[in-house]
């Protein structure tokens, strides 16, 4: 995959994160897409400079933990507030 395509995907996911802020699930999907683009960039960097893939696996572990924490916050919010709107977090 070309570097420019990955950078374009990264920018579009950042723009979607900034402009689509109604639901937490949409924000989490945007963040996961950002993480996926960064993971592709790390993979491209490892391939270009002939590095080992340990750093790739290391970052992938952190990205999985980030996704699990995001989903647990989403489940907690739906249980407490009944919806996943970001505005309902700040009303209490």
TrEMBL record:
Catalytic reaction annotation: a ubiquinone + NADH + 5 H(+)(in) = a ubiquinol + NAD(+) + 4 H(+)(out)
Membrane topology: Multi-pass membrane protein
Regions that span the bilayer: 6-24, 31-51, 57-78
Compartments where found: Membrane
Keywords: Membrane, Mitochondrion, NAD, Translocase, Transmembrane, Transmembrane helix
Listed InterPro entries: NUOK/Mnh_C1-like
A cellular component annotation (GO) from this entry: membrane
Any one GO MF annotation of this record: NADH dehydrogenase (ubiquinone) activity
Coiled coil location: none
Protein family membership: Belongs to the complex I subunit 4L family.
Name assigned to this protein: NADH-ubiquinone oxidoreductase chain 4L
Organism of derivation: Chudania hellerina
């Amino acid at each position: 995959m070309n570097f420019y395509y990955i950078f374009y995907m990264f920018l579009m996911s950042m723009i979607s994160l900034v402009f689509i802020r109604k639901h937490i699930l949409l924000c989490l999907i945007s963040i996961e897409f950002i993480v996926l683009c960064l993971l592709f960039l790390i993979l491209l960097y490892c391939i270009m400079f002939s590095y080992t893939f340990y750093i790739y696996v290391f970052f992938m572990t952190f990205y999985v933990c980030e996704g699990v924490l995001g989903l647990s916050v989403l489940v907690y919010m739906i249980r407490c507030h009944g919806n996943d709107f970001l505005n309902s977090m700040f009303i209490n």
